[in-house]
Design a protein that fits this description.
The chain has 504 residues and is α/β, with parallel strands linked by helices. It has helices spanning 3-18, 29-37, 56-59, 88-101, 141-148, 150-173, 194-209, 222-228, 245-259, 309-312, 338-341, 395-408, 468-484, and strands at 78-84, 111-116, 183-190, 218-220, 235-242, 264-269, 276-279, 287-291, 294-303, 323-333, 345-348, 353-357, 369-373, 421-429, 436-439, 454-458. The radius of gyration is 23 Å and the shape is globular. The chain binds flavin-adenine dinucleotide. Residues 1-23 form the signal peptide.
């Protein structure tokens, strides 16, 4: 009996015994990719909308003390560097710039850096996401190797490992585990169709042949999954982490503030959307950023606006650039205690769905809150591409998400239970699935002069928690090199095809 036939038989057998079912359609990734690549009649993204849905991370009382920071009073009018966006990219860029100037002996005035945020602090995707900090380990290796060769393919995983381990180092060095609700556990990647299982096995074999360290990967059969976790789908299992993303970003901001106060000054202006960027009239600064509160002039600009990038950079609209894409998340109380649910985090169905249980507060609650996102593949033919309105939720997505866990774990989750919170957020998708990192260029011309001094790190395609910090480090390094008249060296973990100047 051939391997494929045996796998198919095992699938049918296990499914019929336990009957895990899915409320969402399967095998939608290829269609979603084809739709993403279609020419678009949508123009550039708008600005972030007002009255965004309330997310658990942002709207839990006390969670966002920086929400309105710098929103009143006088706007800073001059800076060396303006960072647009206060999500994990913008704040990481400020953090890396601060670190760059730490311990420098050269005197002179401190480098002035300003973060401008359209809404409240960290109210974009970072304040609305699924909370996972789990690097991709081998999935998609075959495609990446085909597209870029084995070295580049390896680097895409190296960058994610680097990001996760650096963020964990910071959390440990600053003793932030409780402050950011950091959880280190297992991550299970559910393989819900035979095709997904076969692809995962092929990715694993190719990654192993290319020398990736995969010792920490385990394959768990449907039978073992059903005994241990109560779902019949097989899975790969590896270390995973989750945390409170907004709180991590707030801590990075605080570290940046105190890192090198005599060499580096940092100011945050929330509720200050940048509406346009034009050449500055002054000779000392290159750019003038308009906001409803007045203008600010600066020499360097870092675009950390992710799904909204094309608002200020219209050449990044459509599939050649960054496509805003709405995602949806529920915070749903589990019907069972954490001991039964386990602390593991999960993903599955080609990555469309992802979930994990929040840590429980001892004495206050027994059953954990599950943060569950996905359902975009059930939203209709457009997969929520070009949707920038996160002030509403999508009904069909909400319905399939409510039905998802009771179907995957029969008997373990209560059917019909209403979530405690439900929200949406805007991601930034690119057709190659990888971000734009580096100087702003018009891709057809690779000409940096029109945007001299402007940089971007954006377009993580729904997977930014393990990439944004490192991409921001690269861009901050480029800006710091300009400020200090030194040469920027490409870090060994940065895939070259992420660079705006080398994108395919
Ligand atoms: C529902 C959802 C679930 C996700 N789940 C995960 C996950 O589990 N794991 C993972 O790795 N990734 C996940 N992601 C993706 C991840 O959250 C993003 O890749 C990452 O947060 C991007 O960070 P960022 O700082 O680049 O963008 P954002 O956090 O979106 O920050 C951009 C900021 O720029 C501001 N802005 C935009 N335009 C302007 C302007 N003109 N002027 C001033 N400010 C402006 C916005 O208000 C926003 O605050 C998810 C995303 C969503 C939406």
């Amino acid at each position: 009996m051939g391997f494929q036939y045996r796998v198919a038989l095992a699938f049918i057998l296990i499914q019929s015994l336990i009957m895990s079912t899915l409320s969402v359609p399967t095998l939608q990734l290829d269609t979603a990719q084809a739709v993403l690549e279609l020419p678009s009649r949508h123009g550039p993204a708008g600005l972030p909308v007002a009255n965004a849905t309330r997310s658990f991370w942002i709207d839990t009382p006390g969670a966002n003390p920086l929400a309105k920071e710098g929103s009143q009073g006088e706007l800073t009018s001059d800076a060396d560097v303006c960072i647009i966006g206060s999500g994990i990219t913008g704040v990481s860029a400020a953090y890396h710039l601060a670190k760059h100037f730490e311990g420098r002996e050269d005197g002179g005035t401190p480098v002035k850096v300003v973060i401008l945020e359209a809404r409240d602090f960290c109210s974009g995707a970072t304040g609305r996401n699924g909370g996972h900090l789990t690097p991709s380990v081998f999935l998609d290796f075959v495609n990446r190797e085909l597209a870029y060769g084995p070295d580049e393919a390896r680097k895409t995983y190296a960058l994610e490992n680097y990001t996760a381990s650096e963020l964990i180092n910071i959390i440990e060095a600053e003793s932030l585990q409780r402050a950011v609700d950091f959880v280190a556990s297992s991550h299970l990647s559910l393989l819900v169709t035979e095709r997904e299982l076969n692809f995962a096995k092929a990715d694993f074999a190719a990654a192993q042949a290319a020398g990736l360290d995969l010792d920490h990967i385990e394959w768990v059969s449907g039978k073992d999954m059903s005994e241990t976790y109560g779902t019949s789908f097989p899975a790969s299992r590896y270390p995973g982490h989750n945390l409170w993303p907004l709180k991590l970003v707030a801590e990075l901001y605080k570290i940046a503030l105190k890192t090198a106060p005599s060499k580096f000054s940092l100011k945050l202006h929330t509720n200050t959307p940048v509406t346009s960027i034009t050449s500055a009239s002054s000779t000392s600064r290159r750019w003038s950023l308009s906001t409803p509160r007045g203008a600010i002039q600066c020499s360097y600009v870092i675009h950390a606006t992710n799904g909204y990038s094309s608002h200020l950079l219209p050449h990044l609209q459509g599939p050649v650039g960054i496509v805003p894409t709405r995602g949806q998340v529920l915070a749903l109380r589990s019907a069972s205690p954490l001991s039964e649910v386990t602390t593991a985090s999960w993903g599955g169905n080609e990555g469309f769905e992802y979930w994990f249980p929040r840590p429980v507060e001892s004495g206050k609650e027994e059953n954990p809150l599950i943060i569950l996102g996905g359902g975009r593949e059930a939203s209709g033919p457009n997969f929520e591409y070009y949707v920038t309105d996160d002030s509403v939720v999508q009904k069909t997505v909400g319905k399939v998400l409510r039905d998802f866990l009771p179907g995957v774990f029969p008997g373990k989750y209560e059917k019909g239970r209403e979530p405690e919170m439900e929200w949406t957020g805007i991601m930034g998708f690119t057709k190659i699935g990888d971000p734009f990192v580096g100087p702003v260029v018009k891709s057809s011309e690779l000409d940096t002069r029109e945007f001299e001094g402007q940089f971007i790190a954006a377009g993580y395609s729904g997977h930014g928690m393990t990439r944004a910090y490192a991409c921001a480090e690269a861009v901050a390094g480029m800006v710091a090199a300009k400020l200090t008249g030194t040469k920027w060296e490409t870090p060994e973990w940065l895939p070259r095809h992420y660079l705006t100047t080398e994108r395919p």
